[in-house]
Every structure is written in C-alpha cells, then in structure tokens.
Amino acid sequence: MNSFQRYINETTKAAPLAAFRFFFGLLMAISLIRFAAHGWIEKLYILPQYHFSYYGFSWVQPLGEWTYLLFVLCFLSSIAVMIGYKYRLAIISFFLSFCYIELMDKTTYLNHYYFISVVAFIFIFLPASSYFSVDSYRNERLRYEYIPRWCIDALKLMVGIVYFYAGVAKLNNDWMLEALPLKIWLPGSYDLPLIGSLLEQTWVHYSFSWLGMLYDVSIPFLLLYKPTRRLAFVGVIIFHIMTRVLFPIGMFPFIMIFAALIFFDAPTHEWILRKLSKLGRFSIDVFNNGKHMVHSAMSWSVWRVRVLCIFFVVQLLLPWRYLCYPGHLFWTEEGYRFSWRVMLMEKTAYAQFKVKNGKTQEQFYVDNRDFLSSFQEKQMAMQPDMILEYAHYLGDHFSEQGHQHVEVYVDSYASLNGRINQPFIDPNVDLYQEQESFFSKDWILKFKDEK
Q1: DSSP code of residue 42
Q2: Which label site among 66, 167, 225, 364 has the fewest CB atoms less than 10 Å from its CB?
Q3: Number of folded domains in the chain?
Q4: Among candidate residues 339, 365, 394, the one where a domain is terminated
Q5: Cis upstream peptide for 181 (omega within 30°)
Q6: What is the pLDDT of residues 203-244, one digit of tens each?
C-alpha cells in the first residue's frame, strides 16, 4: 500500500495527456463529419423500421429526425474536448452521446467504437484540461505543468490491452495454421500496385497472419521500452497504413497511430504542442508554470483512482468470459463482442424465418426485407443473439396483427472461414419461447469443422 501511495503521488509532465486529448477530440470530430457525409445517419438510424438492441439496453432507440441533433451534440462535444473548453462537461457530454449512438443498433458494433467509448470514459476521470487548453489558459487555478503519473499510465494501459488482447485472440488454429481469413481476403486486393500479385501467394497469407499476431502481442512492450520506441512507432504507422489500404476499416488505423503517441516522453509532446500553438498564434510558455497537481490537492482523486482500478479489472477479465460458454467461439459468438477480437473471421449465413400457428399448424415464411435493411439482415443471420431478438420481434408483430398461438422457427445455415455451409440454429426450437440471458444458448447447433 505504501508503494501504491507513492506511485499515486508521483507526478510527470502534463503535455502527453494534453496532446492525447487534442488529437482524440480532433479525430472524433473528423469521424463524425465523415459519418454524416456518407449519409450513414439516415441509412443506419433513420430509415430502418427496426433496430437491434444490446441486452439490457432496449430502451436506447434512435430518436427519429432528432438523431441528427444527437450527432451535432456529439460533434460539438468533441470540438470542446479537443480545445479543452468546459472540459469536464464536454467529455461527459461526448461520452454519453457517443455511447447512445453506439447502443442504438447492435448491427453497427465495431471494436474501434468500443475503444472510443472506453477512452472517453477514462478521460472523465483525468485532469486533461490542466495544460494546453482554453480552460487552463483562462483560469490560472486550473493550470498545471505537472500531473499525477497514473493519469498517463492509464491511457498507456488501455492502448496496451487493446493490442495485446487482439494478439492473443489470433492464437487460434484458423489464424495460425490455416492463415484464415486472410487467405480469403487478401486475394481480393490483387489489383493493388506493386503488391497486388503477391497477395495471391499462400506464403504471403501465412506471413501476414504470423506477423500480425507478433505485432499485436509485442507492440505495447516495444513502445514502453525507450530504446525500441521510435522503431516500434514506425512499425505502428506501417502496420496501420497497410491495414487501411487492404481493408475498409474507416478511421481506426489513424486513431491507433495517434493513440500510440502516448508512449513517447514529454519532450516529444511539448514539441507537437508548440507547433500547434504557433498555428493558434499563442505562446505555449504560459502553461509552463512549474505547478504540480499533487494527490492531496485533488479531492476527487481517491475515489476516481478506485473507479479506474475497478474499470481496468473488468477490462482485463471481460475478454475471457467466452471460457464460460461451450462450443466454438466464432460459431456461437457468445462472449465475442467487447473482447478486442479484430477481423478474425469470415462468416456468412442465411436465415429463413417461419411463423406457425401452434394449434392449427398453419404456417408461412417471412420475407426479411419487409422488416430489415440488407445490412441488418446480413448481420442478423450470423449472430445468434440477433436471430433470437428478431424472432421475438416477428412474434410480437404478427401477434399484434391478429395471428393466434404464434410460434417462430428459423431455417439457418452458416459458413465459417470458407467452410461448407452447415445448419446453424435448431429448426425445431420455437425461438419465440426462448429468452435472452447471459446463459449459453443450447439451440445453437454444434459446429462441425468440415472443409
């Protein structure tokens, strides 16, 4: 406890935290502009008549035309976070609005959306506006050149968890021994200049698979170790630019490149911030007052440190929850989300729903296009929890239409990493009678590893 107390009281330059805050806000603002410019707000949240919910969050629904205002609020909050204006209010506003956006429809789940959410949550507890911010520029009492070291280490730990767990997740037979799904994906980029023809070679598929795993598990430690830090950061840039070229994964590569800067020492960040201050035509020297934000000066410090400790325990344990479920993880996807399993499988599926009168045995088939967008239908067909949720929606819908003794069944087939199609969901189970829970879904048929 004495060692922990000494660590909590240890201070370091605030520049790395300020730079991370600035680029985080900037990239979030760009991401939101990009999202709106592609018309995705309307396509994903306005036009669909049904939206898939996370378990326990069915109350989070799109707000109709007011959804645009939600995105505006999130955008303005990201700008305020970037410049450090009304920072505490801004980061809470960003966290709540972004999480609401993320929770509105489960079909849009992406690992980097989850990463943004957890980083925003961490930022709520950090004094990120104490340096190079509008708040600290206008109020000298909020201005500190030195902050507790744990504030920066918390972000390093979060970035390290993302990379390391992504690497551990690659330690599976398909990725390591079969080079799947890269063997399926890479040949699709055959038309790329210079490297296109190489992407059709089997040895390249295996090289990318193994190098990707080694990169993920080692890069946090290489960034922590000062002698290898610069070379490791070059590797970060090359890796993420390559993934951006090969795969349509949006802003995630740029987010991770800038996130990796947190591992550099304060002089690097001070140089970056000095360049930015020249663009803003003000002197960064006003923030260099030599003041230390010590533990005793922060009335909120004790309980917020405890909250973050609990948060990181959850982050370290959550990816292992899949061990509580039987069956093949990629097949059942029980415990798959929120575990930093990035681009690990190629899964396709088909789901034909049948509504039956349990008493008369009269039945009819449902055209999913009457209720779902093509993107929703694709995602639903390969994720059992979404199949169950959709079955309940159909049951409720047709019950309200006057149908009696409604039962809902599905004929479903799926293919995992190029294997032959096989039955996915038990067609004899009335899904309308099954309830969502954290327990295993025994109506998911057993995976057969047939090629």
Answers
A1: I
A2: 66
A3: 3
A4: 339
A5: yes
A6: 999 999 999 999 999 999 999 999 999 999 999 999 999 999
